[in-house]
Amino acid sequence: MSWSGTWPGGSVRCTRRDRSGTGNRSSSPRRPRAGPNSAAKPTRRRPGWTGRRCGGARTIRFPKPSATAGGLLLLWSPSANLSLRQVLLTVEVSGVGLSVGASTVRLVITTHAYRFALDPTPRQVGALLRHTGAARVAYNWLLAVVKANLSQREAERSYGMAEAELTPSLSWSMYSLRKAWNQAKADVAPWWPECSKEAYATGLDRLATALKNWSDSKKGRRRGPRMGFPRFKSKRKATPSVRFTTGVIRLDGRMHVVLPVLGRIKTHESTHKLGRLIEAGTARIKSATVRQEAQRWCVSFTVEVQRAERTPTRPDAVIGVDLELKTLAVFSDGRPAAENPKHLAGARRKLRRLSRTVSRRQGPDRRTGQQPSNRWKRANAQRNRVHHRVTALRRDGIHKLTTSLTREYGTVVVEDLNVASMVKNWKLARSIADAGFGEIRRQLAYKTVWTGGRLEVADRWFPSSKTCSACGNVRPKLPLRVRTYVCENCGLILDRDENAALNLTALVKRHVAGSGPETVNGRGADRKTPPGGAGGRPAPGGSRPGKTGIFVQEWASH
């Protein structure tokens, strides 16, 4: 099988990779190793290209063609047990699209985050703490200036002064805050040359964002819950974090990173996954954020990655996902339900024991100025590590679930759950928070963009559990304790979660096909589904163009 395509010139890298990870080794038996008495056969290379094999991938680099060369021939001979769906073909050309056969490979640029744990030296830990402290100082000082300016103007208004005679207001833009800081930093922080300018810019940027969110929320321009006025950051409670956007930000080998002013820092794990993309010229680091979590320093790189556009394995398939507590997710196509691991419930016994130990140690007291003892610090660190492990296990399980769904199905349908109101139920609040419903929705939002799929969000008042998936009859009441749905109209008996998943799938299919525009709302009255989709309105992180992910942006170059 061969594919031919136009090539305007330059270097092209064609990579084929077996998704199962076995590569070519499963298709042909391994050749016996040459013994001391056997003559070694010379390696045969096809003229015009050089090949490199690494695990299940093979990279072919073609030389730049002559002026008379009008095209490029890409050859691929699949083995007998390796189907076309199992082979990932990625053609990377600088800024162009490559025509392959009857189709066109589109190159897209997506924003990814690569996170690595660090192993800094004690001196580097001190430098990291200085940078995070500098960001907190800049934030708190500018916030005090803003509050003083607002209080002064409010007091002058109470005196009956005209608006033109009031103290000039302070602009909340990043430019104005940076200008005010640069004018006063020599007096406020005489030690400012010891840290990178990015440390102070981190605090100023966070303050500008917080003030804008508060202002937009107050004026009704911001969606979501009401935002309060920014508060001062405490050294004891605030998470140490600093962001670098300029300067020397790069990888140094496989086990080191280089950051401005901080220099070369050893990593706890290999950075090979990101390094090979940078070496191939398909990735570019935009920023780096250093953060301390559970006594561990981590660096997160925001990277622009150029790759071929992907499509799900079953692009026309639609799956409804009903989230619940007994089993984490129930699906409409009959695949086994995702079990709820309940990591927090499993760690509660250990947390109770460690919390008792912490309470019996001499902890900090802000009223008397008492400092915590070393035994309290060690016990508190042990408790924090348990919480951190629970968070990591939950995140890992959700990543595996959402990745499997977005890679296989073209359309994923979920409900618009009001998690903030659900956790107000004191009997189920801990279980709902442990399940991570909001994180599942967030990951599905940006992963469907990466894989070329679509996320549909059903309306919050759509009665997925009360509606019969066979005849469409709606029950007026269905208590949560009733786990089996029994239709009084057609006699259907089905698990309520499976019935809800089927209704989610049918809702999107009816809307897409245009054969059934009518749906039923939570009160049993008929209502037309709006043209925006099954959700009735674009939801945060839903399927609106350009708004489908928090950290995802996509461009296509032809």
TrEMBL record:
Domain Transposase putative helix-turn-helix stretches: 112-153
Transmembrane segments: none
Residue ranges of every copy of the Cas12f1-like TNB domain listed in the record: 437-504
This protein's UniProt keywords: DNA recombination, DNA-binding, Metal-binding, Transposition, Zinc
InterPro entries according to UniProt: Cas12f1-like_TNB, RNA-guided_DNA_endonuclease, Transposase, Transposase_put_HTH
Region (Disordered): 1-61, 215-238, 336-384, 515-558
Source organism superkingdom: Bacteria
GO molecular function terms listed in the Swiss-Prot or TrEMBL record: DNA binding; metal ion binding
GO biological process per UniProt: DNA recombination; transposition
Probable transposase IS891/IS1136/IS1341 domain boundaries: 301-425
Pfam families membership: Cas12f1-like_TNB, HTH_OrfB_IS605, OrfB_IS605
Ranges of compositional bias, category Basic residues: 345-359, 375-384
Keyword Metal-binding: yes
Family listed: In the C-terminal section; belongs to the transposase 35 family.
Protein name: Transposase
